[in-house]
Amino acid sequence: MSSPIVTRRSAQQAKIQTRAMVKSKTSAIASSSATLASSTTTTTGATTVTTASAALLEAKRRARNMLKAQKNNTIAIQDGVTDNFQNAIIAKGLRRGATALIFDESMSQHRCLWDDTHQERPERFTRTLERCRELKLVERCLQLPSRVASKAEILKLHSDEHYDRLESTAGVQDPDAMEELSSHYDAIYIHPSTFKLSLLASGSTIELVEHLLTGKAQNGMAIIRPPGHHAMKSEFNGYCYFNNVALAAQHALDAHKLQRIMIIDYDVHHGQGTQRFFYNDARVLYFSIHRYEHGSFWPNLPESDYHAIGAGAGLGYNFNVPLNKKGMGNGDYMAIFQQLLLPVAIEFQPELIIVSAGYDAALGCPEGEMEVTPACYPHLLNPLLQLANGRVAVVLEGGYCVESLEEGAALTLRALLGDPCPPLVERLELPSEELREALLNSICVHRPYWRCLQLQQTYGPEEYAAAAGDNDVSLLHCVRRIWLGGELPPALPQSEQRYPTRGTSAQLEPQVVAASAARLQRLRNETQLLVPAMRVCYAYDPEMLEHCNLHDSSHPEQPLRIRRIHQMHESYELLDRMQLLKPRAATTDEICLAHTRSHVNTVRRLQGRSPEELQQLSSGYNSVYLHTETFKCATLASGAVLQAVDSVMSGETRCGICNVRPPGHHAEPDKPHGFCILNNVAIAAQYAIREYGLERVLIVDWDVHHGNGTQHIFESNPKVLYMSLHRYEHGAFFPKGPDGNFDKVGLNEGRGFNVNIPWNKKGMGDLEYALAFQQLILPIAYEFNPQLVLVSAGFDAAIGDPLGGCKLTPEGYGLFTHWLSALAGGRVIVCLEGGYNVHSIAYAMTMCTKALLGDPIPTPQFGAAAQRPATVAFQSCVETLQQCVQTQREFWRSLMFGCKLPQCTVGENNNEDFLAATMDQLSISNDDALGAAGGVDSDAGHAAQERPSGSKPKVKVKTLSEFMEEHKELLERQEMFAVYPLKSCPHLSQLRPELAPQSIDADAACVDCGSTAENWFCLSCWRIGCGRYINEHMEQHCRLAQHALALSLSDLSVWCYECSAYLDHPLLHVYQNLAHLHKFKEDMPWTHSCRKRADGCYSTSASQPDEQQDDCSSSSSNYYIQLERHD
Fold it and tell me: Which residue intervals define the domain UBP-type in the entry (predicted)?
């Protein structure tokens, strides 16, 4: 029996063409009724640029066929055209929306009647509002009217008895009775206003979420009390009565049908109530960071440990990071966000983020005894603000040091309003060993469920035994669970439970309180909150267009690059929102900060040279062309960046965009190189150090080519941290050689201040770059604590670039720009380097500008589900990141998480190898499938008779998993596509195989337009029509006549227009064979796992009864592997 995998090889390429190729070829000869693909020619100065035809662009943007497993094990196909720039186009109309704020002054009424020292007191609420008003934040917000939640809304999660019990306390003026009732609940007091205010808190939270989901606000904050995250279905707990955040999430699920909500709970106490509501629900990812101390800290529950990862459908969607010691601070919390929370968030792709914002981990809080400073909270929030399309709701929970609570909450609201994160006054403390252990434990147990958590290497028992024998297991993490919470109390009826009601508030020693108060006051005084009113400055000069290649008008470094960027900024109405800088040329003295004087003089002497002399001179350099105006353009480009440095460092604007050319990062101190004349960013960094006395400048270079010039200029300078992400290909990619490898860390005093992240495969996209940011760039950058960030923003890693071969999207660049804007108090300057698809770079730079302006950017579709096979690019990315972490951890202690994890963990969560698991999922046809070795014995002769001539009987067919593994690189390079057809569909009943025609002419023309390209054959009426990429006549016919099934005369596949899917079923073979006979002059091989029947009768049921399994096994794996060539 033939293989279930049908391949189209080179001998058939002339007959089986891609739709894009057919469309491109036929557009010139199609009838006048067909839509013609047009091309546009643009002339700029001496440069003529021809853009690609619309058909070719459409072909390049085709969505790739994707796996999507259904519950019935059928495979759906997503077909259609995807515009790579669609998100950037959508972003044109997106402007920064309002930040909503909701509160109610009456919430100050809730207090404990029998304990005036109780820490859940009205001042928590009133002082927070006062501080927000003092900073003039309230008046900048969209203030929403508060409302009470309805009973129906509360009963979505809480029981009737729970609601009625609290309702019965409304207005009761008997403190003794209220204290008696409160004593049956853990850490609860009930006031006559508690019922109404609890409804008000829940209703206001729901109202805030409603405004975000209906687009009336971009983000928002609910300053409310009482808090909610401990409240359970039928139990008050921990100052909480109704679970505000859980009710709002449930409202979003029910009213708006959201499928992915992320709840982030950084209150110092575990929100066990929220966890329990969604523990089995994959639609809600709950992520909690809380003090635990191995169960000895309240609420003293085993379920608060890292091993509680969800159950049922929610397995893998519950995250606990238990903090097992006091005194953890900014460095610990930043590490949790960078190493775990953010990677999971971008893989989860939330549609809404709700933050349970407790500030009891803040410095000075007697409950948490942690040391997170108020200014750190904006840094935790900032990277989330461009996820979920900006829909982030912050809801107040705990926090019992009023001074740190009011400041932390106010700075959180300030971040929501788009103000830059304030620089941290104190040097970032590095993560503690206890945090390292807890974080790695959590990563380890979630590793099987999340692709982004597969970055660490693993070890087995043999490796551990060998390391233990050598007394060196420091890089082998051991997963441990310790319980210090004592014996769990017996479960008693609520009426029999008793808890203390007085003197329950935590107390600190007076000297500790005084020291914390003094430290908080100093931090408040020294934290820089004043920012320029103008967000962004913009540098551009049309005179930079004059530098062009006189001998090659198609050279990729063309003047149209910056003109197109400028035009798109005009189209997106961004220029009026920025300060436009006056152009100026950099002086010789300024240029010589990074270059030799002889180099400057050499470039200056180009003026007045003939074209022939210029060509002769340029031949002495690597990939450089020269023009008589090269010196003027290069000095203008460098001067423009210096203008931006002056604007940002003097406080005129917060950040800058430099749309300049020629680029600079390849330029060496003594010569031009790689399209670059002067190293604009290097000159700017040296200028900032000299003119403004800076000690720490960060350069992030995301151009797809390594910035060899910048590296060489600063490799011995500890004042400049150079970080480059670039395609390397083991030194074979331009500029070639070993300088761009991960082991080049700097020289002498500059060791550790050069960080190379070299990609050894093409195809890197948003996911791979995001992981590099989270695992390396942001941790190191925060540890370095820069005073200015310069971005060498080459966009040749963008999708569609002719040189880069990578897949970054414009919105991906916008997201990374936003992440960098949290550094250096927002002082970020983005400077154009490479990028040679004028459409890609225009969209990409525009998204960077919009990010700096605070506009929402569509969230990149990272597409990293752990159920999908790992791409070749991703696997290579993981290898690179591991090498970089191992190399750089010598210099940066924030990279302490780069150790090996055990291959499996003891307990309920099996940490199986990811690749083995995913390939098993792909092995739909197995080695024992009928026909895998030539069929069963009784049918061997029959099977041999059915083989076409030239086939090889008795050759074992590869399983699908083997074939896919062998051709994984072809799939990733998009030279091969896997199509997964349905096994059956209800429209097969339309077929009458017994009435099939005698023959099918595979070369027949469309009856409507005469096209002979990509035609289809209607299986109901035998009509011939052209496909959707020609004039769509077959689709129009099938829709009108309700004939669902059509046969492709190109590749013999069958498409169901009603199911929107390809179909593979034995009933179709008679039609496919007729077309195959006409095309190839031989019968089509029988590829189905059931026996071929003489009567042609086959079941059309997707799930067949047992007695028919012998005839047509449901384990059939009818896959088509189609090879397409893109020239």
Answer: 983-1084
From CA 312, how far away is CA 928, in angstroms rounded?
A: 32
User: pTM of the full predicted structure?
Assistant: 0.75
Report how many helices (DSSP H) and strands (DSSP E) the chain contains, helices first.
35, 28
Identify any residues that bridge with 864 across adjacent strands, giving them in sequence order.
none
Residues 5/963, Cβ–Cβ less than 8 Å: yes
State whether residue 364 is helix, strand or coil. coil
**Are 825 and 689 found together in one domain?**
yes
Q: Check residue 1005 and give its pLDDT.
A: 92
Catalytic residue among 569, 665, 666, 1033: 666
Residues 6+ apart with CB under 8 A from 239: 120, 187, 188, 189, 226, 227, 230, 398
Digit-coded pLDDT (tens) for 1086-1102: 888 788 887 777 877 65
* Domain hosting residue 994, numbered range: 986-1080
Place of tokens 């103008």: 534
Nearest to 540 by CA among 92, 91, 857, 842: 842
Strands (E), 627-708: 653-658, 697-701
Measured CA to CA, the distance from residue 338 to residue 964 in angstroms comes to 34
CB-side neighbour CA atoms (13 Å) of 936 = 8
Asked if 706 is an active-site residue, the reply is no
CATH assignment at residue 323: 3.40.800.20
Q: Which of 421, 449, 342 is nearest to 387 (CA)?
A: 342
d(CA 543, CA 537): 19
Residues 570 and 629 in one domain: yes
Tokens describing residue 305 = 């440990």
Confidence (pLDDT) at 913: 36
Concerning whether 230 is annotated as a catalytic residue, the answer is yes
β-strands 284-291, 318-323 pairing = parallel
Model confidence band, residue 1120 (pLDDT cutoffs 50, 70, 90): very low
Number of domains in the chain: 3
Are residues 367 and 269 in contact, defined by beta-carbon separation less than 8 angstroms? yes
Between strands 1054-1056 and 1061-1063, the pairing is: antiparallel
Task: Select from 513, 496, 510, 497 the least CA-distant residue to 187.
Answer: 497
The CA distances from residue 960 to 401, 505, 850, 920, 966, in Å, are: 61, 63, 45, 10, 10
Which of 718, 727, 720, 722 is CA-nearest to residue 697?
A: 720
State whether 261 and 141 are in the same domain. Answer: yes
**Domain assignment present for 1065:** yes
Judgement on whether residues 563 and 512 belong to the same structural domain of the protein = no
Number of alpha carbons in the 13 Å side-chain half-sphere of residue 46? 14
CB 294 within 8 A of CB 420: no
Domain membership of residue 195 (yes or no) is: yes
> Using CA atoms, how far apart are residues 905 and 809, in angstroms rounded to an integer?
37
- Please state the φ and ψ torsions of residue 1125, each to the nearest 5 degrees: -115, 130
Percent of the chain with pLDDT over 90: 70
Residues 884 and 1022 in one domain: no
The Cα 478–Cα 416 span in angstroms is 39
Residue 735 pLDDT exceeds 50: yes
Query: How confident is the model over 286-302, as pLDDT tens digits?
Result: 999 999 999 999 999 99
Q: Phi and psi at residue 518, in whole multiples of 5°?
A: -65, -40
Asked whether residue 451 falls in the same domain as residue 306, the answer is: yes
Read off the tokens for 728.
């390397």
Residue with tokens 């960071």: 289
Measure the CA–CA gap between 506 and 514, rounded to whole angstroms: 16
Contact 851, 408 (CB under 8 A): no
Shared domain for 770 and 792, answered yes or no, is yes
First and final CA of the chain: distance in angstroms? 35
Residues 997, 885, single domain; the answer is: no
> Are the C-beta atoms of 628 and 610 separated by less than 8 Å?
no
Structure-token pair, residue 802: 């002719």
Handedness of CA 503, 507, 513, 519 (dihedral sign): negative
| Residue of 158, 230, 818, 987 with catalytic role | 230
